[in-house]
# Entry
Amino acid sequence: MKIVNIVPGFGGTFYCGNCLRDSVYAASLREAGHDAVTLPVYLPLDIGDTRPETPVPVFYGAVSIYLRQQFPIFRHMPGWMEDIFDSGPLLRYAARKSGSTRASGLEQLTESMLLGRDGNQRHELDRLVSHLRDHEKPDVVHLSNALLLGMAQQIREEAGIPVVCSLQDEDVWVDAMEPAWQERIWRLMAGKARDVAAFIAVSKTFAGMMTERMEIPGEKLHVVPIGVKPEKYVVTPPASEPPALGYLSRICHDNGFHILVDAFIALRNDPRFSTLRLFATGGMTGDDRSFFSEQLKKLRHHGLAEAFVYRDDFHPGHLGDFFRDITILSVPVLKGEAFGLYQLEALASGVPLVQPALGAFPEVIGATEGGVLFEPNSPAALAATLSELLPDQARLHGMSRAGRDAVERLFDSRILTQRILEIYLNVTS
# Structure
């Protein structure tokens, strides 16, 4: 079977769990003997050592679609000009700039993308559909998220290819918009859902939320969690000499990095944790740099600058040292997440989790027994939970073993890929 995955790129500037999910999944498909092709949209994927061996065109280049949306004069730009705007160096430069991954200010562009052939990106959609129909000729097209649903009708009708769509964290983008825009976008996504043969949510929690918001019929909705390849992660006991907290995600306010920093500062005021360290990795966008600077100033003010380590390299294959150096991973996302791939990466490495009781975090920790929850999502509650867990070596080691075992049993990407292949067979039969 040939599958084309259409995935939003991110330019390699931060840890993108959705992009990594799609990359691991495509690799598992190829290992299973299928022809899996990944087509990036907006920005290059640039996922470290998972980059394709041959160059892949970027469809819906972020610069050209923005110009077409904002300035009508660019809607008829010549091909040579579009090639310049969609060149790799310019797109990577755009990925580093402020606002490149921010929903605020891009409401009209989001709506236009969802309108498909009726939006201002008709040229890009025609180009993508022609590429699928005349060059790739897949059996199934798999969209990475529901914000790409504007492509589905034309792919289905003009290329004659069934469309499957993953569901993960669309609410993070839509709910950052003004309330009036949120309603419009959710309503539009619900209408476009009719063009999709099957939806795959990454958790039961998120499936329930998206069923309500997009009115997805039960027979179309499936739950298949994210997976990883366990053998790619080296298991080591949780670090104890010295103990350390770890953070792996885009470093930004919405992901709660400041909550972990404040909890760390509080713990360091306790003589029992005088050697505790804090490690962070995951990158950031231009929007996040001032926030990160504020956290560094806070740490310096408390005399803890030398107890904090930031690592630039967060790409696959380069996180082994990070996981070896930490005792516990905590990413206190303000509103929770649909899943959180970093949880599996930590558990596969033998690192327990301490997560807020929000989103799908309770679902993941309940299934793995590889961590504990805290509430409310505040520095005080996180510090209190960590202060109980950090000295308890027996409990930490038990969670470490349980987490790794659960990843092998429940979250092996090869097993989960077989479940997705069954969905493909159903929509193509």
User: Anything to note?
Assistant: Residues 10 and 43 are 5 Å apart (CA to CA). The chain is about 45% helix and 15% strand.
